[in-house]
Amino acid sequence: MASMVIAGIRPTRMELLMLKKRRTLARRGHDLLQEKRDALVMEFFSFIHEIAPLRAKAYKALGEGYAACVDAQMMIGSRKLEEISLGVSDRYDLDVKMRNVIGVTIPLFKLVEKAELKGTIQYDLLDTSSRLDEAVEKLHMALEAVISLAEVEAAIRRLAEAIIVTKRRVNALEYRIIPVLDNTVNYIEMHLEEREREDFFRLKRIKTLHEVKAARNRVFSN
After folding, report:
1. In Å, how far are 63, 78, 86, 136 from 89, measured between CA atoms?
2. What percent of the chain has pLDDT over 90?
3. pLDDT tens digit string along 208-219?
4. Torsion of CA 208, 214, 217, 222, to 10 degrees
5. Element at 23 (helix H, strand E)
6. Residue 158: is its pLDDT beyond 80?
7. Which residues contact 195 (CB under 8 A, 6 or more apart)?
8. In terms of pLDDT, which residue wins out, 145 or 9?
9. Eight-state DSSP code of residue 2
10. If phi over 0 gives left and psi between -120 and 50 gives alpha, with beta otherwise, what is residue 77?
11. Which of 72, 92, 67 lies closest to 82 in space, CA to CA?
12. 3-state helix, strand, coil in the chain (%, to 5)
């Protein structure tokens, strides 16, 4: 037990009361952390269920976007397509916000079209093919799918990290801190009980000695 008792502890009633309060708080904290861990695991698996369809959607959208680009390239030529791609400006910004899920900050991604480019077409429709229009639309859909996938993957990663940290804290309380507090409380209680027994026997002995002395005094006085 000595290795599982708080070093340098004084076996007094004051220490016992303080340790019992600490143990109560530790047990309460352990229960709350267990509840948090379980809630995090539920959130984690809810995102896990989303990842497969989102990944499939993103792969499909990217494949369709690539195929549409190949079609456009065949219709207008590689050089022309390259000239158009170099001549257009970045059309979108990524808006990043945060939301709190059981104490874990999770990013929210949103594709935002730049105000100055909203509703505009940055290439000559008469000098290109409708295949290019289709390719642009397919790539836009692919970009949105990739962003949705990235949002869920980021949530999964952050929740997994939070679960690991919370699990470590639960284990530390369950297997180290609370057992040490339990053993230390038991150690002090045993020490105090032993001291009480010693005091009881000492008082009983003193009482017996007083009684013997009183009896002798009565004998001699008679």
Report:
1. 23, 19, 8, 13
2. 52
3. 777 667 667 666
4. -120
5. helix 13-76
6. yes
7. 11
8. 145
9. G
10. left
11. 72
12. 80, 10, 10
Helix (H) or strand (E) holding 109: strand 104-113
Cα radius of gyration (the chain): 38
CA distance linking residue 48 with residue 55, whole number of Å: 11
Tell whether domain 13-212 is in CATH 1.10.287.3240: yes
Output b/e per residue, 129-150; b: 16+ Cβ within 10 A: bebbebbbebbbbbbbbbebbe
Q: For the whole model, what pTM was predicted?
A: 0.76
SS (H, E, C) 50-100: HHHHHHHHHHHHHHHHHHHHHHHHHHHCHHHHHHHHHHCCCCEEEEEEEEE
Is residue 11 within 8 A of residue 169, CB to CB? The reply is no
Query: What does the block give as tokens for 130?
Result: 């409708």
**CA triplet 218, 220, 222: central angle to 5 degrees?**
70
What whole-number distance in Å separates Cα of residue 34 and Cα of residue 30? 6
Tokens of residue 139, six digits = 């790539």
Q: What are the tokens at 60?
A: 């499909």
The tally of CA atoms less than 13 A away on the side-chain side of residue 125 is: 5
